[in-house]
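Anyone up for a design puzzle?
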């Protein structure tokens, strides 16, 4: 079962509607003040916002470190799946009312066996989600795919119901930059990061580099056929699915040997090189300076089954000589003679792709698919430079407009009851008594600061008021 239908690219104009006494919450791309552009989760938050998976906790804040509740995580998954209508009308959970903003998401998750609740009759939508919960939900939403041995999941972490999900997550590259403790609460930043990594991997399966849209290289690019082409294709799809540093990633392979890994899988022992290209101009690919290229290499065991790369296990930088030798023996499995020759540096390999950055890039750039892409990329870049400057300028103007409209002499205004009110995040370290929100019915109003904090910590909904204290709706954290 696939989690998400492919979403079309979305470019939204930045227009802020500011009306009357209540600052309107606009349907424009927000400038989250608490999401640094150099944060590992920055592209994931932007991706989630554009796809309406989450709009943040206010127009100016995402609160990346806040924990998510079970109801919120189910809703993220449901929205990522394009909000399918639940087929069942029977609700087994007494603590999930039909009026809950999580109602459809929880029924969908239940009928698709993503979660069975905390008991036969309770879902506990307000309980905080641990990392084990999040990864298990995500793994189940993907159809519980099998994954090979993971040192993290099978050795370093305690065993539990989450082990298969962590094994899969580790093999998917989800856990390389986040905390990995199963029983710790999972922050909003990591939940959208896991979703983003999982869904952009689908881009690579469809022939697009997840980071920049460059076509994924294929074995045919380098004149490979048969088993060599199948091996390279599997590796390229696996590596290019990850968000990379640079414009383009091209892998290079030399094969030392292989062995039967069981269940129809084959494990290859290889030299694996990754070349990262920066500031890439395909038109001048034959003359790219070495200063615009990064590289990393390792001895790797690459396991392929049915044309899919299920594992890449590698030697690690910084290992001691004895540690590296032991790792090579582990990677070689039954090929003990190969392990000895690799450790003695006498092993012979079979080169299946160019092993220099320039030869690899030149072959890649001269394919028709890449030439066509280069033409389209140039058009996008010309238009994109102008659009990006407009978006950034409008974003800055939006925040200044909100401050100008919402603050009085740099402070939050007060209503007749002496309560301060306005959007959160306009003044560092200061939170108004009444926080501007949009209710689930679409009306703009305010929630009590303490009510919003409870909603953040335990889920559920809280009451939305107008400035005169009249109830106008309910609010739920997205």
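Challenge accepted. My sequence:
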């Amino acid at each position: 079962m696939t989690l998400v239908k492919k979403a079309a690219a979305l470019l939204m104009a930045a227009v802020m509607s500011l009306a009357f006494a209540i600052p309107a919450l606009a349907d424009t791309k927000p400038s989250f003040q608490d999401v640094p552009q150099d944060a590992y989760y920055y592209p994931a938050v932007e991706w989630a916002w554009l796809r309406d998976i989450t709009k943040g906790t206010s127009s100016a804040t995402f609160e990346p470190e806040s924990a998510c509740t079970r109801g919120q995580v189910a809703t993220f998954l449901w929205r990522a799946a394009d909000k399918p209508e639940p087929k069942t009308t029977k609700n087994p959970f007494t603590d999930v009312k039909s009026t809950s903003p999580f109602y459809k998401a929880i029924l969908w998750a239940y009928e698709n066996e993503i979660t069975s609740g905390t008991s036969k009759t309770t879902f506990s939508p307000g309980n905080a989600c641990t990392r084990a919960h999040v990864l298990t939900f995500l793994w189940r939403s993907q159809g519980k795919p099998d994954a090979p041995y993971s040192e993290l999941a099978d050795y370093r972490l305690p065993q539990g119901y989450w082990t298969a999900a962590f094994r899969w997550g580790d093999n998917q590259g989800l856990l390389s930059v986040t905390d990995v403790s199963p029983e710790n609460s999972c922050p909003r930043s990591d939940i959208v990061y896991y979703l983003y990594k999982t869904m952009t991997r689908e881009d690579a399966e469809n022939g697009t580099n997840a980071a920049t849209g460059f076509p994924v290289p294929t074995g045919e690019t380098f004149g490979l056929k048969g088993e060599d082409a199948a091996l390279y294709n599997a590796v390229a799809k696996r590596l290019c699915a990850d968000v990379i540093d640079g414009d383009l990633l091209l892998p290079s392979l030399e094969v030392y040997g292989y062995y039967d890994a069981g269940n129809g899988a084959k494990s290859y022992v290889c030299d694996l090189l990754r070349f990262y290209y920066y500031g890439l101009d395909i038109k001048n690919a034959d003359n790219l300076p070495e200063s615009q290229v990064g590289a990393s290499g390792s001895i790797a065991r690459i396991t392929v089954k049915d044309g899919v790369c299920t594992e890449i296990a590698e030697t690690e930088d910084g290992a001691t000589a004895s540690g590296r030798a032991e790792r090579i023996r582990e990677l070689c499995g039954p090929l003990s003679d190969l392990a000895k020759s690799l450790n003695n540096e006498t092993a012979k390999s079979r080169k299946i792709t160019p092993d220099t950055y320039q030869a690899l890039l030149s072959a890649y750039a001269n394919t028709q698919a890449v030439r066509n892409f280069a033409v389209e990329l140039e058009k996008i870049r010309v238009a994109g430079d102008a659009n990006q400057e407009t978006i950034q300028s409008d974003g800055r103007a939006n925040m200044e407009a909100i401050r100008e409209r919402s603050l009085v002499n740099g402070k939050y205004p007060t209503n007749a009851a002496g309560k301060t009110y306005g959007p959160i995040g306009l003044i560092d370290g200061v939170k108004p008594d009444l926080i501007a929100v949009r209710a689930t019915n679409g009306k703009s109003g305010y929630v009590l600061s303490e009510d919003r904090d409870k909603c953040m910590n335990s889920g559920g909904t809280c009451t939305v008021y107008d400035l005169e204290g009249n109830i106008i709706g309910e609010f739920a954290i997205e």
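A detail worth pointing out: The chain has a mean pLDDT of 81.
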